Amino acid sequence: MIGKIGKSGGDFLNALIYCKYDRRSVDENGNLKIRGELVYFQNINALELYGPDIDLNYIADELHAVADQNTRTKSPVAHISFSFPPGESPSNEVLQNIVKDYAKEFGLKENGLAVYKHVDKEHEHIHIIANKINELGKNTVSTSYDFLDMGHFSRKMENKYGLQSTKQMDSLLIDGKTERKSNPIHAQLRNHLDQMIPESEDLESLCVKLLQKGFKTKRGNGITFIQKSSGVVIKGSDLGRAYSKLNLEKRITGSYLPDDKFGIDNPKTTEKDKLKQLVKSTAPVSKTFPDFIAALNREGYGVQTKDMINKKSGKPFTSILFTKNFSIPDENNAELPIRNLKMITGAQLDPEFKYAVIKSNLNKGTWDDLGHGSPFTKSTVKPEIEKPLIDKPNKSTPETSSSAGSAGLDFAIERLLTSNNAGQVEADSAKSRGKIAVEVKRNASGYENEFGTRGLEEMKEEKKKNLRTKPKKKL
Fold it and tell me: MobA/VirD2-like nuclease domain spans which residues (predicted)?
């Protein structure tokens, strides 16, 4: 079974027409001939209510209505196909189970999708037209949306449902490792690198040793090797993940994580876990923050920082944002395409991946998450005591009543918060501060002092007057 991810689009109707009809032939009535059999659908009310013969416009309109909730995703149409070897014809039940497994693994479990089977070619195949946006308006397409993960998925389905193993995909193994094409120059270069890495102090010294073996190196965002005798150019990533520029640097420093149970190359590892491992292994070997950013760029991630204000405390802080388009990046071009861009802040990733924590781990050799809000450790740093809303003046400082915002005014406001005074000001939050300041000014300008002694006397007299004029109860 071979899985293929088609180019994302913005027109559900066009995609559905392609899957259901043969545009090159018409029947005796002049209508397009049907070539696709609807074998499965989910979360599409039009098909649920009216069946497979309903006009495709109604299906497309329903999918677009859901997709329109997300204004950021310009291409909400996902088009996936699975092809089977000539002679293999899985039952519709098997096809349905494959689609359900795919939807669950690639983030489409709750999304609208329709599946059509084509048998008009030598090899039977199915087309999945899916909405990337769910009913809540969220783009849920899995971050594992790339060719390599499709290969792993195809191998799993072949084993799970007893399907034929497709030769074109034999290089992709189930355990997540990739069997590289047999190439004597590649094999020779890998052997040289494996032997020289333990003897190299840094990437520069490794390149010098390689030059003695007949390979020049070109370094930028990635690394490229050139065999001097033949002129053959080989990118580091072509040799394997362990031979990218970043991973060569990690192998030299001893911080590289191989393909273990929880390794970054394991297909079962979530994208968030991959990013966490990448940050933990990269920050300690990066001398500066720009070096850290450049290292993540080489792995296909964008890194941005932004100065912000905490809405609760009002204190400034720096936020870090990681972005990725979740497709296999070109090592020679670290710029990320806008299409399918995903993003997550360090705090959303985990509290220990905030900007301050990452910066404190730069050039330390090993990652230290103690005291940085890790859910597995208790912070040894005493929390900063919040400054009170009202600053109490020094007792030796004379209290003034003429200047709003002065120490005397602040002290007067604090007393007004807890005292019965001429203004009878009700203040239970900082929002009342402006009203209190106005009341203090009024008292200070029109009465004997800012606390309203004269005002209190007037209130007493008014109360007595009211009592005298109040009619007595009849006996």
Answer: 54-163
